[in-house]
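Title: Comparing notes on inverse folding

I've been comparing how different people in this forum approach sequence design from structure. To keep things fair, I'm posting one structure and asking everyone to reply with a full sequence. Here's the target:
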């Protein structure tokens, strides 16, 4: 049985950098999605924020992932879905008339947990698929 390799320090540094730049990239993506949202009538929806940030982070992390795994598309989508989900819940609650307070840090924290779970499952699936080939 082979031993697990320790995390490569440079990979961890590149991962942190990709994630940080992903948050920066998320800002113009959120702005673009907000314009589209205004055009289609969902301009005040907060899920646009989560989806935009998820897209930015997912795209930047996927640049790093493509060196490791051949399929990186599911990674981007898992980031978008993972970060948009808690914001979507608050949007649905607002439309349903529930008095759910919108708290940015709570949505981001829950989104981070969901994102970690979804990307973990996605990564395990991609690794298993790669081994099967």
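Reply #1:
Here's my take.
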């Amino acid at each position: 049985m082979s031993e697990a390799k320790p995390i490569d320090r440079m990979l961890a540094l590149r991962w942190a950098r990709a994630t940080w730049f992903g948050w920066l990239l998320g800002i113009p993506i959120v702005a673009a999605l907000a314009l589209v949202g205004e055009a289609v009538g969902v301009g005040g929806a907060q899920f646009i924020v989560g989806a935009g940030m998820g897209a930015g982070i997912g795209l930047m992390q996927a640049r790093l992932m493509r060196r490791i795994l051949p399929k990186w598309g599911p990674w981007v989508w898992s980031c978008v879905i993972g970060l948009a989900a808690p914001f979507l819940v608050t949007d649905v609650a607002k439309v349903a008339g529930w008095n759910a307070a919108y708290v940015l840090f709570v949505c981001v924290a829950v989104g981070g947990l969901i994102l970690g779970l979804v990307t973990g499952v996605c990564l395990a699936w991609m690794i298993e698929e790669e081994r099967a080939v």
